[in-house]
């Protein structure tokens, strides 16, 4: 996964507005529907959504900048200072380790039902864990958190889980759809999106995660729904906003104007003498909400002049302007 700043094409000093503009511009360019001939379109769009998810969130962005999470939003492995610098070999003490007493290192750990664990030693806390030491050194070598099997042995550790962001259109989330998801291992899986699915909905794909490095069961894949940018509608919570052109004669005299919706279109009655900027609310025509219903569609009128110049209209406007003066 590339650096989120490189994916969005912004600098590390970019503010929220700049990040939002870059995401909208690239989302329209990289949307799979606009790149049907590109087999990697889905992966590119997923990468863009992951980068935006990290940088739009102040907390996640801070964690990434500090190196606490990687470009996929996963926690980075901690750096163990106990193995660096000190007396003796390259790592410090005998054998290159520092932070351990050579006389007691072999008695500081013991095996138990949960694998290799640290035993009591000088300076240990009441729970048996010494300050600054490892609670479970077995994790470092891959055999720490193994599960005890029914026969008394240890079952291999399962593979790691993976997180996938699946972009869906407003229409797909509202009406339902079937989406194909590409997993990092190259496998393609079809997922059913139920009608009324909201952004943030998380689905578990059992056994579709990373394979186990020790022959255990694979991890799980978790797919989180994310709304994709829309060419017509702008999201405002569970509501949607759009700008509709209304010809000047219709704004003055009144008319019915065809307005697109998530499912088809409706006729909006524009009253006579409607000014530009007037807002109409169509209830229940927005996105699915937490109560099982839908938000609203907010339609703002944009009064437009005729395409060709009209001498009579200009004369009328001059007359009206003179009367007002």
TrEMBL record:
Protein's recorded name: J domain-containing protein
Keywords associated with the record: Chaperone
Span of domain J: 3-68
GO molecular function, one term: unfolded protein binding
Biased composition (Basic and acidic residues): 30-46, 53-77
GO biological process: protein refolding
Gene3D superfamilies, alphabetized: DnaJ domain, Urease metallochaperone UreE, N-terminal domain
Listed GO CC annotations: cytoplasm
SMART domains, A to Z: DnaJ
Highest rank taxon of the organism: Bacteria
PANTHER family the UniProt entry points to: DNAJ HOMOLOG 1, MITOCHONDRIAL-RELATED
Organism for this UniProt entry: Xanthobacter tagetidis
InterPro entries assigned to the protein according to its UniProt record, in alphabetical order: DnaJ_C, DnaJ_domain, DnaJ_domain_CS, HSP40/DnaJ_pept-bd, J_dom_sf
Transmembrane portions of the chain: none
Annotated spans, Disordered: 29-77
Entry-linked PROSITE patterns: DNAJ_1, DNAJ_2
């Amino acid at each position: 996964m590339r650096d989120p700043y490189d994916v969005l094409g912004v600098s590390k000093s970019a503010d929220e507005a700049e990040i939002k503009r870059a995401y909208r511009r690239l989302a329209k360019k990289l949307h799979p529907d606009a790149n049907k001939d590109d087999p990697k379109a889905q992966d590119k769009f997923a990468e863009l959504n992951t980068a935006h998810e990290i940088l739009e969130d102040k907390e996640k962005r801070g964690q990434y900048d500090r190196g606490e999470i990687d470009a996929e939003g996963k926690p980075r492995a901690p750096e163990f200072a106990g193995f660096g610098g000190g007396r003796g070999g390259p790592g410090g003490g005998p054998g290159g380790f520092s932070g351990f007493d050579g006389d007691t290192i072999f008695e500081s750990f013991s095996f138990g039902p949960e694998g290799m664990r640290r035993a009591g030693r000088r300076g240990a806390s009441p729970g048996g864990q010494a300050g600054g030491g490892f609670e479970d050194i077995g994790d470092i070598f891959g055999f720490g958190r193994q599960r005890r099997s029914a026969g008394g042995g240890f079952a291999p550790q399962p593979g790691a889980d993976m997180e996938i962001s699946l972009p869906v259109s407003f229409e797909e989330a509202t009406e339902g759809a079937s989406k194909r998801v590409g997993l990092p291992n190259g496998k393609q899986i079809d997922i059913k999106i139920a009608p009324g699915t909201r952004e943030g909905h998380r689905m578990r794909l059992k056994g579709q995660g990373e394979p186990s490095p020790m022959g255990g069961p694979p991890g799980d894949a978790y797919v989180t729904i994310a709304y994709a940018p829309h060419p017509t509608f702008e999201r405002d919570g569970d509501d949607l906003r759009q700008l509709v052109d209304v010809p000047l004669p219709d704004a003055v005299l009144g008319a019915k104007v065809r307005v697109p919706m998530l499912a088809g279109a409706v006729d909006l009655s524009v009253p006579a003498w409607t000014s530009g900027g007037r807002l109409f609310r169509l209830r229940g025509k927005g996105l699915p909400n937490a109560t099982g219903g839908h938000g609203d569609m907010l339609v703002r009128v944009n009064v437009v002049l005729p395409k060709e110049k009209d001498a009579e209209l200009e004369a009328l406007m001059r007359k009206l302007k003179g009367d007002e003066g």
